[in-house]
Write a structure and sequence with these properties.
Rossmann fold, GMP Synthetase, Chain A, domain 3, 3 domains, 5-stranded parallel sheet, 24% strand
Length: 537
């Protein structure tokens, strides 16, 4: 199904159907913005501000430092940092040296860091000083030759070993000119981005300069960003592809101001929105839920918000409606995956459409095609209203998985990427995610969609967070089991909540077991790690 069949009556005014992407590299975003708006503030971190000219110079200095360390084109550089200015400096400096960024989540433990370093073959790592104990242990079992450390404060620590270097010292001793490295935007990798591992072992998605560049430019057009006039709240982890694109490369392409928060704290976020007059905030459902549940919510003016995007997992309809009522801004749902840089779909942000299509992930972005195919083979295109697997293709789709040709082959069908998500299309061409292919619950001869049950659970006023998984059943197949976190100031019994849900769904979908938890395991992107809740048969 070509996108042309979807471009009618609901396509947002002012958004082009096609975008002309430059043949340049991803770092051209920063270079062009720095040339046009050199004195404009690019980054706000605490009381520190960095202009675009300064950011361009600092990233050039880091690139030259890497070149001096013999980092060559195509080498992987691991960036193990939270949302601090050094992440952005290291990210673009790595690209300018011709190397490939592999970002490591600050939440990762020793085993996970070691795996990513070993699998990527990174020989250089940039790490926060407080992460050094982990880095020191894993470098002995990997190919890492150079450890560059930095602190979130102004003063960086002293090196521990001969191969440990201080970022500030490297920058001071490096020129501010851009290294001359020729980049093929279609073929050369910009990032080796590891999947979240929510359903198994993480894999490295090979993302080219064109993949990331096209996604940044198309998403910036989609949200109708105003050049040099937006202020983004960068609270999503930049180490995650969702934050990397929507909260770093997109604002850079718009000459926007980025306000960095290394940790999501509801009260701090609310304060930041008012203080800096945030206009764009990309987050995950758990973030919006936490803000609505905060006792500080009524203390701050949030009316500067123009648009918020929710991704990574399904957005409960009642959260979406209430957030828009409270802020006066738009909160719409989008969709993406690491393998797609990541955004493929998003609901329109036209103010005239604020009440339309609640629960939908929207339309494919410019130059992105999408269709629904049968779950069994991935080759038969399904029609309107039929549930099947979502398949996508476009300039943002990865080259494949790093050193995993067989797994790459499994997710591609004739140039289309199979997402692993179950979806359907309505009469207006809007897409709806109904569930993960791997999370479908097979109850005898019936298919039960966990998201449907989760949406009903969220309708209960006492439910703060929930997840539904399949539990092996002795009588065949699986039964739905719910895990629920209750709001701090509320009380509800197991029978009450189960009756509330089961009274609204068919008997074969009924929740058979419910377990209360104080919290649920979350990924760095705020997605519930259902594999940690599932019981092995």
């Amino acid at each position: 199904m070509k996108n042309d069949t979807l471009w009618f009556k609901c396509w947002p005014a002012g958004v082009p159907k096609h975008i002309k992407y430059t043949k340049g590299s991803l770092q051209e975003i920063l270079r062009k913005t720095a040339l046009t708006y050199p004195e404009k503030t690019a980054i706000v971190y605490g009381e520190r501000e960095i202009s675009y000219a300064q950011l361009e110079a600092l990233s050039n200095q880091f690139a030259n430092a890497l070149v001096k360390l013999k980092v060559e084109k195509g080498d992987r550089v691991a960036v193990f940092l939270p949302n601090i200015p050094q992440f952005i400096i290291a990210f673009f400096g790595t690209l300018k040296a011709g190397a490939v960024v592999t970002a490591i989540s600050p939440l990762h433990r020793k085993r996970e860091v070691e795996y990513q370093l070993a699998d990527s073959g990174a020989q250089t790592i940039v790490s926060l000083d407080s992460f050094y104990p982990i880095v020191e242990k894993v470098t002995q079992k990997t190919q890492v030759k150079h450890v560059i450390i930095t602190g979130s404060a102004e003063n960086s620590p002293s090196p521990r070993t001969p191969n440990t270097l201080i970022l500030d010292q490297l920058l001071e001793n490096s020129p501010k000119t851009t290294p001359k490295v020729k980049i093929d935007s279609h073929e050369d990798l910009a990032a080796l981005q590891y999947t979240g591992g929510t359903t198994g072992t993480a894999k490295g998605a090979m993302l080219t300069h064109l993949n990331l560049l096209s996604n940044a430019l198309s998403f910036a057009k989609w949200i109708q960003g105003k050049e040099a006039k937006e202020t983004f709240l960068t609270a999503l982890p930049l180490s995650h592809i969702y934050g990397m694109t929507t909260s770093m490369t997109v604002p850079l392409s718009l000459a926007a101001k980025m306000v960095l928060l290394p940790k999501f704290q509801p009260a701090k976020v609310l304060q930041t929105i008012e203080k800096h007059k945030i206009s764009v905030f990309c987050g995950v459902p758990t973030m919006y839920q936490a803000l609505l549940a905060s006792s500080e919510l009524c203390k701050y003016d949030l009316t500067s918000i123009r648009v918020c995007i929710s991704g990574a997992s399904s957005l409960p309809p009642q959260v979406q409606k209430l957030f828009m009522q409270v802020t006066g801004g738009l909160l719409v749902e989008g969709y993406g995956l690491t393998e797609a840089s990541p955004v493929t779909h998003c609901s329109p942000v036209d103010s005239s459409m604020r009440t339309v299509k609640v629960g939908s992930i929207g339309l494919p972005l410019p130059d992105t095609e999408a269709k629904i195919v049968d779950v069994e083979t991935g080759k038969i295109t399904l029609g309107q209203g039929e549930r099947g697997e979502l398949a996508v293709r476009g300039p943002q789709i990865m080259k494949g998985y790093w050193h995993k040709p067989q797994e790459t082959e499994l997710v591609f069908r004739d140039g289309w990427l199979l997402t692993g998500d179950i979806a359907c299309i309505d009469a207006d061409g809007f897409f709806y995610i109904t569930d993960r292919k791997k999370e479908l619950i097979k109850n005898k001869d019936y298919s039960v969609y966990p998201r449907e049950l989760e949406d009903v659970l969220y309708e209960h006023p006492a439910v703060k967070l929930c997840a539904v998984v399949g539990k092996p059943d002795a009588f065949g197949g699986e039964i739905p089991k719910a895990f629920v976190v209750i709001k701090e100031d509320m009380v509800a019994s197991r029978d009450e909540i189960m009756s509330f849900v089961n009274g609204k769904v068919a008997p074969y979908k009924a929740i058979r077991e419910l377990e209360f938890r104080k919290e649920l395991p979350l990924s760095a992107a705020g997605k519930v790690l259902k594999r940690l809740l599932q019981e092995k048969p």
